Amino acid sequence: MASHATETSGAPVETPPPHTPAYMDMEARRGLWRAFGKSIEWSSLILVMTLGYATFTLTMGVNWLPALIGFAGVGIIAGLLLKMGGAWFATVFGLGVLAFIIQIFVWITHALL
Questions:
Q1: What CA–CA distance (Å, rounded) separates 26 from 39?
Q2: Per residue in 59-87, pLDDT tens?
């Protein structure tokens, strides 16, 4: 049976073949993991804000505006503590505007029914 391994002289290989994990540049690998961590950070905070807002308004009977202000505050404080930058604050503001627009549609629906 033929072996797929090749004979070497025993000297260390200076450049690993492209199919091995060590072939990737270490700075690129660090950047990849930083980006992965940031995406998890963003996704987790948006999920916490969305589920918290829904839980407070739908199951606990809290009015929509105090719940919206409270969870926007949670998002802003978390963004400051985690140094997430201006894009995060714009996202929190955009989610607040979206929640307000949805609430307008709820008011219109209640008025028509």
A1: 20
A2: 998 888 999 999 999 999 999 999 999 99
Quote the pTM value. 0.69
pLDDT at 3 over 70: no
Answer yes or no: are the C-beta atoms of 49 and 74 closer than 8 Å.
yes
Rounded Cα–Cα distance for residues 100 and 90 (Å): 15
Task: Concatenate the DSSP letters of all residues of 60-75 into one string.
Answer: S---HHHHHHHHHHHH
The rounded distance, in Å, linking the Cα atoms of 55 and 61 is: 9
Both structure tokens of 96: 């607040």
pLDDT digits (tens, 9 = 90+) for 87-100: 999 999 999 999 99
b or e along 70-87 (b: 16 or more beta carbons within 10 Å of the residue's beta carbon)? Answer: ebbebbeebbeeeebeee
| CA 97 – CA 70 distance, rounded (Å) | 14
